Amino acid sequence: MKHGTILVIDDNPAILTAVKICLGGTFERIVTQTSPEKVLTTITQEHPSAILLDMNFTLGVNSGQEGMMWLSVIHRKFPDIPIVLVTAYADVKLAVRALKNGAADFVTKPWDNDELIRVLKDAIDKASEIIPLDQLETEHVRKVLNKCDGNMKRAADLLGISRQTLYNKVKNEK
Amino acid sequence: MKHGTILVIDDNPAILTAVKICLGGTFERIVTQTSPEKVLTTITQEHPSAILLDMNFTLGVNSGQEGMMWLSVIHRKFPDIPIVLVTAYADVKLAVRALKNGAADFVTKPWDNDELIRVLKDAIDKASEIIPLDQLETEHVRKVLNKCDGNMKRAADLLGISRQTLYNKVKNEK
DNA sequence: CATGTGTGTCTAATCTTTTGACAATCGTCA
DNA sequence: TGACGATTGTCAAAAGATTAGACACACATG
Question: How many Cβ atoms from other residues are within 10 Å of residue B14's Cβ?
Answer without folding.
Answer: 8
